[in-house]
Amino acid sequence: MDIATRHHGNRHGRSEAARVAVLEAADDLLVERGFAGVTIEGIAARAGVAKQTIYRWWTSKIAILFDAMLADAAEHFSPPDHGDLGSDLRDHLRQVATFLTATDAGAVCRALAGQAQHDPAVAAQFQSEFAAPQRERDREPFLRARRRGQLSQTEDIDLAIDQLVGPIYYRVLITGEGVPPEFTDALVDRYLAPIRDTLS
Amino acid sequence: MDIATRHHGNRHGRSEAARVAVLEAADDLLVERGFAGVTIEGIAARAGVAKQTIYRWWTSKIAILFDAMLADAAEHFSPPDHGDLGSDLRDHLRQVATFLTATDAGAVCRALAGQAQHDPAVAAQFQSEFAAPQRERDREPFLRARRRGQLSQTEDIDLAIDQLVGPIYYRVLITGEGVPPEFTDALVDRYLAPIRDTLS
Amino acid sequence: MDIATRHHGNRHGRSEAARVAVLEAADDLLVERGFAGVTIEGIAARAGVAKQTIYRWWTSKIAILFDAMLADAAEHFSPPDHGDLGSDLRDHLRQVATFLTATDAGAVCRALAGQAQHDPAVAAQFQSEFAAPQRERDREPFLRARRRGQLSQTEDIDLAIDQLVGPIYYRVLITGEGVPPEFTDALVDRYLAPIRDTLS
Amino acid sequence: MDIATRHHGNRHGRSEAARVAVLEAADDLLVERGFAGVTIEGIAARAGVAKQTIYRWWTSKIAILFDAMLADAAEHFSPPDHGDLGSDLRDHLRQVATFLTATDAGAVCRALAGQAQHDPAVAAQFQSEFAAPQRERDREPFLRARRRGQLSQTEDIDLAIDQLVGPIYYRVLITGEGVPPEFTDALVDRYLAPIRDTLS
DNA sequence: TTTTAAACGAGACGGTACGTCCTGTCTTGCT
DNA sequence: AGCAAGACAGGACGTACCGTCTCGTTTAAAA
Predict the structure, then answer these.
(1) Rounded to 5 degrees, what are φ and ψ at A159?
(2) pLDDT (tens digit, 9 = 90+) per residue, D74-90?
(3) Among residues A65, A123, A171, A120, which one has the least CA distance to residue B123?
(4) Does C touch B (3+ CB pairs < 8 Å)?
(5) Predicted local confidence at residue A8, as pLDDT
(6) CA-to-CA distance for C24 and C42, rounded, in angstroms?
């Protein structure tokens, strides 16, 4: 048994078992009962943990959900590398769509994005802990293309990202229409059309 | 004095004064204290209205906020008509950005969009009462251009809208970066580039 | 159905049904589980009442217990009148002993006397709401005897009461020995011995 | 430095320093914040001791308070010997009154007497560890008088004690009036009046 | 001198109850 | 009939202590 999981109350700090149980309970409750069904008391009861233990390590249920999401979010994205910007973008946008619409972490992400609209502090945390790292992942295909000499040095990458992932989030958060591969592929096609000449 | 405002406890139907007071109280509370600060009890107290009166006419605080937003949203948008798709789109996207980032109704809209992430019923209402009518407004410039013969009959208007307004919502809801006219203008420029040939 | 019991939430004030249920629940819990077993949550659960309803009308579980005791305490004592100080005192002291050792209200009284040792505010309330009225009841036999001319005007009645009821409380609260009639009768005999001459 | 105070963690028995610190902390907290302010956590924090150390040596905060009181109670009482029952009783009753009303140990004693009303186990401990030894001390003057031939062999000493100290506890615990020497002296006078003939 | 085991401080743990806030329902008397 | 008022049952909040536990350190008797 791992040292971190062996202890349930000790001077070495927190119980890993409790931490994991809380994150899983929060995740389960969100999926099963929705955001309003995620309560500290409910998490504590389901995780078999005392409320005080939760309050000792997290400031709010939002903080728990961030913890529950972040690792998964990072794991979900595998940087594509097909040696071609178009292929890489198509691949990446599909990953983004899949993450948001078809994973538990994506469900948590949507809930947090929702809560960010209600609370500036959540918005700031969402920005720094999810949006910014995600933006780095979004940039990867472009930077790679640029390194290959396939993309102009003057191309505004951030604008391109807004154009490409913006519509995905829009459909997920606003219209609720679903984001099929045809949609993301079409986005890439439209984006690449005017700059196709600059590609080798 | 208007008939509707004359009665406060009567047999002549609901009190317009109470209705207005509730909507304003909800709006004020949202702006002053954020979404969590909007409670039925708080609205009732600020509006000088009994809780029961609120429950009689609205199903939840969400319903109140929808009421508070919808009229303003419709009023905000004035269909542009410069006889040119580019100009109309630039104008319209600026209106969208202004609505979302700089109006009270936009603040309510963001809050409701947030809540839609937590509650499918809210999402459905948001879709039908805000997103769908708004989509109609978004289509206007394209339909006008098509009627003018400036836009191909085969152009996928809904995809175009996703491409154009999606990035605006994305910046508002996810990155929180703000949406200056330069940004929306650039979106239009990029959109029009490949189809410029099809324009007269 | 009585007006007072008909309403459960209205502008006429509190629900008599809730009031009674709370007092009975508190009483039952004290008898069944002891003072530590009397909790606001426990009372609320057993009475089928919301905690907030309790906090609306009582400041603490102590206040509830006072309410539960006071009416019973007044009812318990029937002023004796045998036309004779000795008989009256014997009767009264037996009533005191019975109240303290053999009634539910007496159990509550002992608990409150206990809590008065822990909290000056409780002590003050105990003094004004129980001890003072009880002292009036204790004085009755002496005042009656004095009116009959059977007791000297100079007799120190309060000292006499301290002498007569003090030992009863002492056995109840400190030694826990029980207070049989033989004991209270002996107290009266010893008290009357030196002043027997003054009696007609 | 004493052996017992030299050790703080060892295999040779408990730390005297910790024991004393705990008792003093409990005493201080009782006096400063009242019975409810005496918590194991509070004692541990103030004594600079781990909670576990407290639980190792005491079963509850009640046990700590008993420890804190008992030595002082025994020390407080110096058996009077004036060769006269009246003088001895007057002296002793004043000591009882002083102990209960004017010493820290008396404050603890009152608190424990209070808690005894809530918990039969405390009552039993109070009876065996305080009331019974105290009763022995109360008997001393009578036994001495009897040995001197000044008190009848048939006199009911326990009844006499109930009559004499009962009113003192009554005033301390119930009426809160204070117990001046005039009061205890009057008790003795009234007690001795009818049996004065049997003396000397 | 080294080992070793009891007591120590610290503090995390699963819990219970606290007193507060808000929910949605209700019942009244007034207009 | 609609209204302001406000009491009601219910449930989650975040806090304070409870009593239990595990840890790493201190210590002095035993080896």
Answers:
(1) -60, -45
(2) 889 998 889 999 999 99
(3) A171
(4) no
(5) 45
(6) 12
List the single residue in D162, D173, D187 with the smallest CB-CB distance to C113: D173
Q: Which residues of chain B are modeled with pLDDT < 50?
A: 1-7, 9, 200
CB D194 within 8 A of CB D156: no
Average the pLDDT over D149-155 and give the result.
93
Give the gyration radius of chain A's Cα atoms: 20
Dihedral sign, Cα of residue C52, residue C58, residue C63, residue C65: negative
Distance CA D40, CA D22 (A): 10
* Helical axes C16-33 vs C61-76, angle rounded to 10°: 90
**Contact (Cβ atoms closer than 8 angstroms) between residue A35 and residue B118:** yes
pLDDT tens per residue, range C138-182: 999 999 999 999 999 999 999 999 999 999 999 999 999 999 999
Q: How confident is the model at residue D183 (pLDDT cuts 50, 70, 90)?
A: very high
Mutation choice for D interface testing from C170, C179, C196 by most D CBs within 10 A: C170
Tokens of B14: 């609901």
Crossing angle of helices D157-170/D181-192, nearest 10°? Answer: 150
Which segment of A127-131, C18-22, C76-80 scores lowest on mean pLDDT?
C76-80
Residue nearest to nucleotide E27 (CA to C1'): C10
At how many degrees (to 10) do helices D85-102 and D61-76 cross? Answer: 150
**Cα–Cα distance, B171 to B176 (Å, whole number):** 5
Task: Say what the pLDDT of residue D70 is.
Answer: 87
Instruction: Give the neighbours of chain C: at least 3 Cβ pairs within 8 Å.
Output: D
For residue B73, give every residue at least 6 positions away whose Cβ sits within 8 Å of its Cβ, in sequence order, or none: B99, B105, B109, B130, B133, B134
Q: Tell me how far apart the alpha carbons of residues C49 and C9 are, in angstroms, rounded to a whole number.
A: 12
pLDDT digits (tens, 9 = 90+) for A104-144: 999 999 999 999 999 999 999 999 999 999 999 999 999 99
Under 8 Å between Cβ of C17 and C5: yes
- Residue D148: both structure tokens together: 């001197």
Q: What is the pLDDT of residue D3?
A: 40
A171, B162: Cβ pair inside 8 Å?
yes
pLDDT at D198: 53
Task: Using CB atoms, pick whichever of B110, B120, B166 lies closest to residue A170.
Answer: B166
Confidence of residue A194 (pLDDT cuts 50, 70, 90): confident
C122: Cα within 13 Å, side-chain hemisphere: 24
Three-state secondary structure string covering chain C: CCHHHHCCCCCCCCCHHHHHHHHHHHHHHHHHHCHHHCCHHHHHHHHCCCHHHHHHHCCCHHHHHHHHHHHHHHHHCCCCCCCCHHHHHHHHHHHHHHHHHHCHHHHHHHHHHHHHCCCHHHHHHHHHHHHHHHHHHHHHHHHHHHHCCCCCCCCCHHHHHHHHHHHHHHHHHHHCCCCCHHHHHHHHHHHHHHHHHHCC
CA-CA distance, D138 to D105, in Å (whole number)? 18
What would the mean pLDDT of A177-196 be, rounded to a whole number? 92
**pLDDT > 90 fraction of chain D, expressed in percent and rounded:** 82
Q: Please check whether residue C164 is in contact with residue C158, taking contact to mean a CB–CB distance below 8 angstroms.
A: no
The half-sphere exposure of C163 on its side-chain side, counting CA atoms within 13 A, is 25
Phi first, then psi: give them for residue B139, nearest 5 degrees.
-75, -25
> Given pLDDT bands bounded at 50, 70 and 90, which one contains residue D61?
very high
Rounded Cα distance, D7 and B138, in Å: 82
What DSSP assignment string belongs to B84-148? -HHHHHHHHHHHHHHHHHHSHHHHHHHHHHHHHTT-HHHHHHHIIIIIHHHHHHHHHHHHHHHHT
| Cβ pair C174:D113 closer than 8 A | yes
